[in-house]
């Protein structure tokens, strides 16, 4: 087990250059397998999920050259082969599911392990994915530990309407549609910034996509796919996270941010805790007047509310970070996770710091913030952003705290501890058997 030890109570200050967004990088890595032409990806982050995907590419015989220091990845899937009896896709990460369409397109068969659930946020359905594969002509067979998916011939273009705007199902639809002859249209498509970034990569490969950033995406596929060079965008999760680190510790962190147009709702959410986010000259920083305080709504008898749902709502992966601010800010806030049914169970860990939180139902949590907090040893579930939120609370409290099982952070944030140290944090990884 990897634990984070932090000696908190120090205001964090300084500049951060954010890394790429794991949830853009991973579908893009999966998509590279569609083409046998050489590719150069710039800004590849050194995170465990990336390493797992690159490892399976090597096992499949692809050429992989990566230099994390310069952030350059060269990929060439020329002599790549796949055998479902021999090759297992990476487990404990959601993105493996997006290797299925390229495997189908190139080898007519894919095998998906059962554990592609990723963070333990509650139900992570695979049925919407299976429906997409079937609509494109795939046959899906269930075995005790995996699914075997086969396409008897070429995938067939089709139209589909999702039950809900699922991020990875939208990406899987685009991946299937890229290989299917003709135009396929997806309605109720997800439109998160990482979905848009992924679609821009697909366009670079030669796929024609319309409706980027909307809930109806049209994909013209079946043509030859090329190679090329692609530079990853900055990760809005990491930008918001480091801004919040500054705010919760009473410091001020400046983060490079080339896409402030993605931030209006994120900024308004910070403002609910008395934190102003300022975007200028390609950078963002926070400003606050004294300790954090929940801003009361004008409507009488309701709580200040933070609602997370598919984009353009507040991204659900940012909710734990704002819950940390809610614990610290004087006043009461209701946090509403409209997506996951099991993403709030960790709230009992917050009480170990002396925080008062109330889990009304699996989707709704109320923080009664601003109480005196003391350092503690807390245990993170396998949820990246929760390990970070627990760290944030700990960093705001004077004394030694421990976040046990904080390893999921390494799935998404390269140099997390190094970045924190550059801001003045006293923090270390400690390994435990
Ligand atoms: C690799 C990757 O990109 N992972 C992200 C992706 O996961 P992922 O694509 O798995 O998330 P989905 O959008 O499919 O949603 C996850 C689950 O939430 C439930 N659900 C979702 C939306 C909805 O309107 N109704 C509903 O019930 C379903 O049970 C679904 O299985 O999107 C999630 C939601 O932004 C993020 O937390 C994950 O970080
Ligand atoms: C939940 C996340 O990732 P995954 O879907 O891969 O578990 C996340 O990035 O916060």
UniProtKB/TrEMBL annotation:
<keyword id="KW-0132">Cell division</keyword>
<dbReference type="InterPro" id="IPR013792">
    <property type="entry name" value="RNA3'P_cycl/enolpyr_Trfase_a/b"/>
</dbReference>
<feature type="domain" description="Enolpyruvate transferase">
    <location>
        <begin position="7"/>
        <end position="420"/>
    </location>
</feature>
<dbReference type="GO" id="GO:0051301">
    <property type="term" value="P:cell division"/>
</dbReference>
<keyword id="KW-0963">Cytoplasm</keyword>
<dbReference type="InterPro" id="IPR036968">
    <property type="entry name" value="Enolpyruvate_Tfrase_sf"/>
</dbReference>
<keyword id="KW-0133">Cell shape</keyword>
<comment type="pathway">
    <text>Cell wall biogenesis; peptidoglycan biosynthesis.</text>
</comment>
<protein>
    <recommendedName>
        <fullName>UDP-N-acetylglucosamine 1-carboxyvinyltransferase</fullName>
        <ecNumber>2.5.1.7</ecNumber>
    </recommendedName>
</protein>
<dbReference type="Pfam" id="PF00275">
    <property type="entry name" value="EPSP_synthase"/>
</dbReference>
<dbReference type="GO" id="GO:0005737">
    <property type="term" value="C:cytoplasm"/>
</dbReference>
<dbReference type="InterPro" id="IPR050068">
    <property type="entry name" value="MurA_subfamily"/>
</dbReference>
<dbReference type="InterPro" id="IPR001986">
    <property type="entry name" value="Enolpyruvate_Tfrase_dom"/>
</dbReference>
<dbReference type="GO" id="GO:0009252">
    <property type="term" value="P:peptidoglycan biosynthetic process"/>
</dbReference>
<keyword id="KW-0961">Cell wall biogenesis/degradation</keyword>
<keyword id="KW-0131">Cell cycle</keyword>
<dbReference type="GO" id="GO:0008360">
    <property type="term" value="P:regulation of cell shape"/>
</dbReference>
<comment type="similarity">
    <text>Belongs to the EPSP synthase family. MurA subfamily.</text>
</comment>
<keyword id="KW-0573">Peptidoglycan synthesis</keyword>
<dbReference type="GO" id="GO:0071555">
    <property type="term" value="P:cell wall organization"/>
</dbReference>
<keyword id="KW-0808">Transferase</keyword>
<dbReference type="GO" id="GO:0008760">
    <property type="term" value="F:UDP-N-acetylglucosamine 1-carboxyvinyltransferase activity"/>
</dbReference>
